[in-house]
Amino acid sequence: MARILCLDYGRKRVGIAVTDPGQIIASRLTTVPTHTLWEFLKTYFEKENVELLVVGYPRQMNNEASEAVRYINPFLKKFQKVYPEVKLELFDERFTSKMAFQTMIDGGIKKKQRQDKAMIDAVSATIILQSYLEQKRNLRS
User: Fold this and answer.
1) Which of 7, 56, 65, 69 could potentially form a cystine with 128 if both were Cys, beta carbons 3.0 to 4.6 Å apart?
2) What is the helix (H) or strand (E) element at residue 108, kind and residue range?
3) Residue 88 sits in a domain of what CATH number?
């Protein structure tokens, strides 16, 4: 099987998580500056077989898209043109930053490390991807 890659897309940074080839476990991969994302994707896709890109899509409490989508939508359009062979899915990312922060506290990460926004973005991407995998499994059951 191919991997699933997940992006927590932000204006400054993009948190990235990936599954194992069996698509069972989501793992934190890295965080890259947003302006280097295309270079990262090109290099990663040359090395790894990726069948799906999951992108965290921010929604408000009333389920409408948040203001941040105006930065994400242009990326999504370009991605579909550049990589038409890679399936693209959006996944609700509400509360993932707060969940990531709490996960880091629960995991015993020191306060100084918890202030690292790049780490929070990568953990958020991991939470988004793991939630996606769990939802996919629940729909099959």
Assistant:
1) 56
2) none
3) 3.30.420.140
Range of the domain at 26: 3-140
The tens place of each residue's pLDDT in the chain, 141 residues long, gives 899 999 999 999 999 999 999 999 999 999 999 999 999 999 999 999 999 999 998 876 666 666 777 889 999 999 999 999 999 999 987 655 555 556 655 666 666 665 556 777 788 899 899 989 988 888 776
Give the sign of the dihedral formed by CA 38, CA 9, CA 112, CA 100: negative
Whether pTM exceeds 0.85: no
How large is the greatest C-alpha to C-alpha distance in the chain, in angstroms? 42
- Sheet containing strand 50-57, edge to edge, reads 26-33, 13-19, 3-9, 50-57, 87-92
